[in-house]
Amino acid sequence: MTFDLFANNITSTLPDGLKLPLLADYTCQPIVFNQNKGYNIVIPQGELLYFPEFFSPKIANRALDFLLANSAAHTLPHELSANTPWTNIPWQQDEIKMYGKQIPLPRLSSWHGDSDHPYTYSGITLQSLPWNAALDYLRDQLQQLTSIRFNSVLLNLYRDGQDHISWHTDDEPELGKNPIIASINFGESRRFLLRRCEKERQATEKIEVLLKHGSLLIMQGQTQHFWQHSVPKQAKVLKPRINLTFRHIYPHANS
Ligand SMILES: O=C(O)CCC(=O)C(=O)O
């Protein structure tokens, strides 16, 4: 049996796979921003913007092909690894230390940015790689919408529905006080969940966004202080999905 976060029927389902608590301080308003149709999702102590069709299917397909390009023939998604002969993104298998053991993370990653300052999160240190033409193009598109020049991007490759990311917040000091995180998605649609950091409110206040091919989700304001997010396993998903979170890093925040 799969655990359904929304089984207790306290949630309203909105267009484009959005689910919000049926509470007065949660609303979802359609917006058009710089000709992009989306939703302003108003939540307590957080700010979310979702643009389901930020990239056209043509651009999204090209981005997916570029990010997944490799010279291994007929590799099944779950066989993709750091040893695959990748062409454009050197996807790597990071590990996390738990109970004295090195455990491989359930996804592949790559970290690119302006500075050669390494990025540390959850005890993992990622070395910064240079931008390439496709990553630069994607960051330019985000700059046109937001007027922000992001200086870093974390790429995650979920090879199939077994790959996932557990509950966490993006609250490393290098990201600044109230970080703006622009998250874009290519490939299979996956469920993106948010829940309150405060344990007592987790059962009643949770949000779901179905992040689909070519979509953009922006998290800003106090979101990273009051909300955790995750991408759960989805056993029925058999193909890859790539997520890119563009961030602004302040490299000397710790020094
Ligand atoms: O894959 C996603 O949509 C989320 C990725 C994420 O949470 C992260 O990179 O911190």
Provide a brief overview of the structure.
The chain is mainly beta and 255 residues long.
Overall domain count: 2
Radius of gyration: 18 Å
Distance between the termini: 48 Å
CATH level 1 class label of the largest domain: Mainly Beta
Q: With helices defined by DSSP (H or I, 4 residues minimum), what is the helix count? A: 3
Number of E strands: 18
Mean pLDDT over the residues: 91
What does this structure look like?
The protein is 12% helix and 37% strand. It is mainly β and 255 residues long. The chain has 2 domains: 1-53, no CATH class; 56-192 and 233-238, Jelly Rolls (Sandwich), CATH 2.60.120. The N and C termini lie far apart (48 Å). The model is unreliable at 1-9 (pLDDT under 50).
List descriptors:
255 residues; mainly beta; Jelly Rolls; 2 domains; eight-stranded antiparallel β-sheet; four-stranded antiparallel β-sheet; 12% helix; 37% strand; binds 2-oxoglutaric acid
What order do the helices and strands come in, and which of them pair?
Blueprint: E1 11-13, E2 19-21, E3 27-33, E4 36-43, E5 46-51, H1 57-68, E6 95-98, E7 101-104, E8 108-113, E9 119-121, E10 124-126, H2 133-146, E11 152-158, E12 165-168, E13 181-187, E14 190-196, E15 206-211, E16 216-220, H3 223-226, E17 227-231, E18 241-247
Antiparallel strand pairs: 1-2, 3-4, 4-5, 5-16, 6-7, 8-11, 9-10, 11-18, 12-17, 13-16, 13-18, 14-15, 14-17
Bound molecules: 2-oxoglutaric acid.
